[in-house]
Amino acid sequence: DVTHYNQTMTGCNIQKCFEEVKKSSEISKRRQEVDGFNSENRWKKRGISLVNTMFGIAFTAPHLNQTGALVHVYVDGSVLVSHGGVEMGQGLYIKTMQVASSVLKIPIERIHIQETATDKVPNTSPTAASAGSDLNGAAVLNACKIIFERLATYRERFPDNGWDDWIRKAYYDRVSLSAMGFYITPGIGYDAATNSGHPFNYFTFGSAVSEVEIDCLTGDHQVIRTDIVMDVGSLLNPAIDIGQIEGGFMQGYGLFTLEELIYSPEGTLYSRGPGMYHHVPRHR
Question: Which of 71, 105, 114, 135 is the most exposed place for a label (fewest CB within 10 A)?
């Protein structure tokens, strides 16, 4: 399969998502029920729809697909991580701490995150394009691997002593316990003139079915049920990513049902982006 910008698709699971959500939502059966409801009710109507989605992961401006990380290990064995990503509730900090914990093979409680600052990691790219965990997690991975490799001789000579002892011995041997990590997304590039290249590192896929009911007299509405199936690759933290999927659905629901859409005379949508999300629907 090839996209309209001529990037070859690999690992495309959209068909799998589509078939799975069709089955879990029982959309064929429920569509008949919706038709029956609508034929029996004059002022309340229901609708049901299935929509697929595919989203490319990477900045289409190649120079933004880079970031750094700074990792310090202190003589007491604690670890301080700085990277170029901004935490805004999406769980980036906990994910990068998980990466450090996995590489250094120490409990996550020993690892601390410092607020993002350009005096620690310069020239940071925006935390956007759904690439924050990929970029910053990989930079932290790189820095932690450097430090872990410096400790190899102590792990080999004193296999039973553990992390704290290895750190103390390295410190007294004047081994650097600080490292700068760096990561660039490989193979990124797109030529608009020829409409060819590889603008995205990979894609996420999803299918969703929603059934809604509208009061034709008052405009009151409710979502009766929504089924979502997403393929977002290998998860660093499933609980966070499920929360992101559910939260994204609620934000989109609020944007299209509770916000006033403002357009320019030429038809450009002005009210777009997180800054326009004033009303998030609540469960009742």
Answer: 105
User: pLDDT per residue over 213-235, tens digit each?
Assistant: 999 999 999 999 999 999 998 89
The listed CATH number (3.40.1180.10, 3.30.365.10, 3.40.50.720, 3.40.630.30) that belongs to domain 66-184: 3.30.365.10
Q: Is the pLDDT of residue 119 over 80?
A: yes
User: What order of strands is seen across the sheet that includes strand 79-83?
Assistant: 111-113, 79-83, 66-73, 178-184
Alpha-carbon distance of 141 to 138, in angstroms, equals 5
Prediction pTM value: 0.88
CATH number of 14-59+201-276: 3.30.365.10
DSSP 110: G
Selection from 135, 76, 75, 73 nearest residue 104 by Cα: 73
Q: Which of 194, 185, 197, 204 is nearest to 7 (CA)?
A: 197
